[in-house]
Structures are given as structure tokens and as C-alpha cells.
Amino acid sequence: MTPELLARLGTPDGATALAAAADLADAPPLTAASALRARGLDPDLAAAALTQAVLRRQARTKFGADANVMFFTRPGLEQATRSVVSRRRAGRLAEGGVTRLADLGCGVGADALAAARAGIRVHAVDADPLTAAVASANVRALGLAGLVTVSCADAGTVDLSEVDGVFCDPARRRGGSRVFDPRAFSPSWDFVAAVPHRVPRTVLKLAPGIDHGLIPAGAEAEWVSVDGDLVEAAFWCGPLAGAPRRATLLRSDPPSASRPDPPSASRRWSDSPAITGSGDATAPVGPVRRYLYDPDPAVVRSHLVAEFASIVDGTLADPRIAYVYADSATPTGFARCFEVTEAMPLSVKRLRSVLRERGVGRLTVKKRGSALEPDELRRSLRLAGPEEATIVLTRVDDAPTVLFATPVPAA
Ligand SMILES: C[S@@+](CC[C@H](N)C(=O)[O-])C[C@H]1O[C@@H](n2cnc3c(N)ncnc32)[C@H](O)[C@@H]1O
């Protein structure tokens, strides 16, 4: 798509094409394209409308009903923050005193739109002309033009003297592939890391695998999961920082949700389940106990396993492995719980004969601290029989160990 085609999608002809394409989003692409052309639609407009129809459908998991009126590029959609996360962030920014926000590298505008809905004035900037045009179209589509201005510019040229907050979610992709080296981020890490010195109320969004060594001094580093999937890290700088580390667990919006409530309504950002701490506490170490807790990845990545262990009165069986063991099954949303029924030193030969004896034909393999690949292991175990089992491959006091475990249903 080009900015010109995007502009045409905003005309009455474009609206007709989009409405027709929405009904054809599931059809094979060639059938859909010829059906639109048969209605007399210009082929370029028809193709652009079909692309939007497909992207809008895919975007519903991130944006709910808003996706039906928004515009996307494929990379823009892939990189966009899902609304359950951006909404909560916006509430926290507003409560933290941000009234005028610069969004440096706004993409299709997910974070800028959420901030505006929280009542914040936003100057959203993207260096890519099509992406900036898409963000602008989304601002109009969602009726937020009174609160958001969008410019196509390099983040480095933006005057930050007029804002009291900055959000920056640098691009971590190049030529379609992910980049992990912060030096390859765009805007560059050097630029990004300097922003909190210019505007103290700054939030940096990063990939969850970001190096803890890059956390700015005094900032809060938060890891966020949605439905148990780790989705991002965010560094909250200056007065926005709370505890040094935070693990936040969110649930995705129900599929039927239309426009969500603004964050200032009944739910506050701080209502979301979270564990906070220093990030450098160590949990006590002891033997394998009756229950094993597998903490949410946000807890593990934020180095808050010790804080979680104290919630369930738990211990580790190896100081380097983030499985927590306890004598009772405490209901918790921060981990999945398993009852350990047996522990044995890891020997594939012995495991094969035990599983044979028990007639186990279906085996769930969980692992932490083991180099064995579950699929390869299952093949070499030559499973046969009607029974099912779950095993955990891990280390106990550094010794490779297999635990037989039964999932404890969540409370
Ligand atoms: C990860 S995306 C932002 C996604 C956005 N937060 C959202 O949820 O929709 C990063 C964006 O930064 C833009 N970008 C990269 N380098 C930039 C620069 N130097 N100045 C401004 N924008 C830039 C890219 O075009 C891309 O759209």
C-alpha cells in the first residue's frame, strides 16, 4: 500500500470497497479480488481494501472491535501493542502526571491512541511515511483527532520541550527479521537511553529478552505477560518508577469486548496482578517437595522468583532453576502448580522402562535446566500404551532429575 492508496480508502469509494472486502476476507484471494472487480471497483483500490479486510480480521485479537475501523500495515500490526497492555500503560502514565506525551516511533498508533483515551494529549511521530499516514488515519477513525497529532519525522528531530512525558517503542526489526542487539534498534539505543535525561517521565518499551544491564539507573523494569505469554518489557523512568522490578500478569480482553472502558473508569492500572521487588533477592534452597510451581514467564524474566517463593512459602531445589517447591498447593495466578508424585535421577533407559511398565503412550514433557529436547526424548522413549503422564526434566542440586507430576487445576 502507498499513502495515496490509504487516502483513497478514506473516500466514499474507499468506504464502499472496504465494506465489500470485509465480507470477502475469508474467501481465496483471487476469488475475492475478482468479486470486487466485478462490482466495478478499481483493481488497486480493491486490492488495498482486501488487504485491510484481512489485516483487520487478524487485528481483532489485539484491538477487539476497534480493529474493524482501523488501518494497518502488516509490520505495523505485528509490532503494535495489544490494547489490554497499552490501555493499562496509558492509565499509569496519566496517573503518573503525564498530560502531554511524545510517542517517538508510534507505528500504527496503538500506544498513542490508548494514551489519548486516557485523556493525554499526544504528539505521535513515525519516520516511515506510510506508517505515519496509517497512524493518522487511525486517530481519525477512532475520533481522537482533538487529542493526537501525527507527524512523519525522525524521532531525533522532535522538540521535547513542550511535553511532560515520552513513550518510545523502538523498532526491533530490520528487513523483516527481529534484531536483538540494541545497537540495531531504531531509533538507536544511544538516542533512546538519553531520552529520560531530557524528559524524566519516560517509558521505554522493549522486547522481553532485553538485557537487565540496560535498565536505566533508578528506573523500574517491568515485564508483562498476557494469558501467560511474555509480551514486553517496559522501563519506567524518573517519577514514573515504582519498585525496581515488577512482573505484571494480564488477561486478554474477552473476544466480545467492544470498546473497553477508559482506564480512569472503574479499573486502575494498579489493579492488575503484579509482583514487585528488588530483582536480586535469592530464594531459599531445599529438597523437592510435594508441589512444584512453574512461575509465569514475567515473574521469571523480572528476577522475582524469590518474591514469588515467599508467597507460597516455597524453596528452590537448585539455586539456578526457577521451579519453586512447597508443601501445599496455594491458589495463585502467578504460577502453574503440579503435584510431584515421584522423583528419579535422569536416565533415558530407566525412564523408558518405567513408562513401558505403566503403559504410557502420551507424555507431556516440561523442562527447565535440561538440554534434552522433548520431541527427541519422546521419540527415543518409544512410547506405547493407553496411559498419559507428565514429566518435568530439571536439576536438583545440580543433578539432572525427572519428576513425575500431575497438574493441579487452577483455583
Ligand atoms: C515497534 S514500532 C512502534 C509500535 C507502536 N508502539 C504500536 O504499538 O503501534 C516502532 C516504530 O518506530 C518507527 N521508527 C523507527 N526508527 C525511527 C526513527 N528514527 N524516528 C521515528 N520513528 C522511527 C518505525 O517506523 C516503527 O513504526
Automatic annotation (TrEMBL):
It holds the Pfam family Methyltransf_25. GO terms for molecular function: methyltransferase activity. Transmembrane segments: none annotated. The lineage of its organism: Bacteria, Bacillati, Actinomycetota, Actinomycetes, Micromonosporales. The keyword Methyltransferase applies. Gene3D superfamilies: Vaccinia Virus protein VP39. Residues 103-168 form the Methyltransferase domain. Keywords: Methyltransferase, Transferase. This is Class I SAM-dependent methyltransferase. InterPro entries: Methyltransf_25, SAM-dependent_MTases_sf, Thump-like. Residues 335-406 form the THUMP-like domain. Residues 251-274 have a biased composition (Low complexity).
